Amino acid sequence: MLRWVITFFILAVVAALFGFSGLAGTFADIAKFIAVIFVVLFIAGLVYNAITGRSANPRL
């Protein structure tokens, strides 16, 4: 998920360099949205691990 944030950030920078301000803003908004989802899921995983004492992804 973090790779998607970096990808959209790079696309936003490239679009801004070429003068596509609307497209750059859209890419930046998408990157922010995915970053927020990443942080929420990361915190939820930390809380789950702290409460149960085990990993959210058990070994197969």
Low-confidence stretches: none
Average residue-wise pLDDT: 88
Q: What is the H-and-E element order?
A: HH
What value does the Rg take, in angstroms? 16 Å
Beta-strand content bin: under 5%
Helix-and-strand structural type: mainly alpha
Tally the helices: 2
The number of strands is: 0
Task: Give the CA-CA distance, first to last residue.
Answer: 22 Å
Largest sheet report:
none
How many domains would you count in the coordinates? 1
Shape: elongated
Share of helix, binned: over 70%
Protein name: UPF0391 membrane protein PQU92_07490
Family: Belongs to the UPF0391 family.
Main location: membrane
Keywords: Cell membrane, Membrane, Transmembrane, Transmembrane helix
Provide a descriptive summary of the structure in words.
This is UPF0391 membrane protein PQU92_07490. With 60 residues, this protein is mostly helical. The chain has one domain (2-52). The protein has 2 helices and no strands. The protein has helices spanning 2-17, 21-52. The radius of gyration is 16 Å and the shape is elongated.
